[in-house]
Amino acid sequence: MIPPAAPHACPAALPADHLRVKTGRVGVLLVNLGTPDAPTPGAVRRYLREFLSDRRVVEIPRLLWLPILHGIILRTRPAKSAHAYQQVWGPDGSPLAAITAAQARALQERLGEAVVVRHAMRYQNPAMAQELDALLEAGCERILVAPLYPQYSGATTASALDGLAAWITARRRLPALRTLPPYHDDPAAIEALHADLARQIADLAFVPEVLLLSYHGMPERTLHLGDPYHCHCRKTSRLLEAAFARSHPGLRVMTSFQSRFGRAKWLEPATDATLVELARSGTRAVAIAAPGFSADCLETLEELALRGRDDFVAAGGTQFAALACLNASQGGIDLLEALVRRELAGWIAP
Ligand SMILES: C=CC1=C(C)c2cc3[nH]c(cc4nc(cc5[nH]c(cc1n2)c(C)c5CCC(=O)O)C(CCC(=O)O)=C4C)c(C)c3C=C
Ligand SMILES: [Fe+2]
Ligand SMILES: [Fe+2]
Asked: Which of helix, strand or coil describes residue 293?
């Protein structure tokens, strides 16, 4: 679609190859949150230091936060979190990194040579700046940056855009840029999630009474400050609930928020408390899903699938299934392709 650059005359003092760069291509950068390079206390510490130093993630004044982060959290949490990562670490490393890489490869296949697809992590590796540079190097003059968060939050979507902004300010030669909007209520996203979860439920050895939709939590204060995250999660849930009411009339769909961090009040109800409450009030069979995560990660594979099951069973529940995220499944890649093609309108042939 982009015409080749016309020949031109440059000052004789410049070397003949000063503009001999590849041009005319379109790039897509899939971005997810980030994960440690290894399931060791040292690597987890480096990851947490970068992540939890981000002002978008912890919004309390630096003077208060930095002594807590460096004096307490970075001394105690890395060993505990490394133990959790060891339980989900796979042959290709961290699940979040491996799945995001697989999503990028699958999307590259779908989009063909007209588009260069790469992936990056907001924290740790592969770094956003390195991957954006690689797209420029490959001749991409137009780049779509796609944070893979269906629901917008300052801590995730906005932070990924901060990563892009930091790269922009540090480079002379910039491409044209677009960013993927949140897709929490996109009919294609709801349909993909509904179809994938329904397929997984059909494959279970039991019939769940409850489908619990668990989203990563946020401090409740961020909702009052105007972050749309809570509303986006609730809307995804409402649309999924409506879809399941049609396909699975006996299934109760509920929503909760997981991964509380720190002492402040977080969005409620909490996932762990909800599982215990369900079991205590007589629910025996639960399936849990995480529609806020585009890829399985520590928060789904350890917190939900392992600890969630323990909480539910200890409180009297008997059947528990943690359903997979869309990941690089056919439905997941169909969705990514649809979202990305829509955002690339005018840059690539329909
Ligand atoms: C999907 C959306 C996410 C939101 C919103 C979010 C907010 C948020 N997270 C923390 C603190 C931690 N999160 C951690 C891991 C983690 N978080 C997300 C996604 C969201 N976070 C993902 C995908 C992951 C998993 C990464 C992986 O490697 O698999 C962690 C690290 C793990 C641990 O030590 O428990 C922390 C810490 C805050 C404070 C926050 C909002 C303010
Ligand atoms: Fe998180
Ligand atoms: Fe809301």
From this structure: coil
Number of Cα atoms under 13 Å in the Cβ half of residue 124: 20
Q: What are phi and psi of 308, to 5 degrees?
A: -60, -45
Is residue 159 within 6 Å of ligand 1 at its C-beta?
A: no
62-85 residue pLDDT tens: 999 999 999 999 999 999 999 999
Give span(s): CATH 3.40.50.1400, the chain: 25-183, 187-322
Peptide bond into 181 cis (omega under 30): no
Pick the CATH number of 25-183 from 3.40.50.1820, 3.30.420.40, 3.20.20.140, 3.40.50.1400: 3.40.50.1400
Task: For residue 220, say whether it is annotated as part of any ligand binding site.
Answer: no
pTM, whole model, 2 decimals? 0.95
Whole-number Å distance, alpha carbon 134 to ligand 1 midpoint, is 27
C-alpha distances in angstroms, 120 versus 93, 131, 256, 342? 15, 6, 29, 21
d(CA 194, CA 286): 17
Q: Which of 280, 279, 298, 282 is nearest to 290 (CA)?
A: 298
Spell out the CATH class of 187-322: alpha beta
Residue where the block lists tokens 């350890």: 302
Q: In testing the pocket of ligand 1, which one of 125, 216, 271, 307 has its CB within 8 Å of the most ligand atoms? A: 216
- Nearest atom of ligand 1 to the alpha carbon of 218: 41
Decide whether any atom of ligand 1 lies within 6 Å of the 261 Cβ: yes
**E-only strand ranges, the chain:** 25-34, 115-123, 140-147, 176-179, 210-216, 252-258, 285-289, 319-322
Whether the bond into 269 is cis, omega within 30 of 0: yes
- Split at pLDDT 50, 70, 90, the class of 7 is low
Say whether 216 counts as a known binding-site residue: yes
Which residue minimizes the CA distance to atom 6 of ligand 1? Answer: 216
Q: How far apart are the first and last CA of the chain?
A: 11
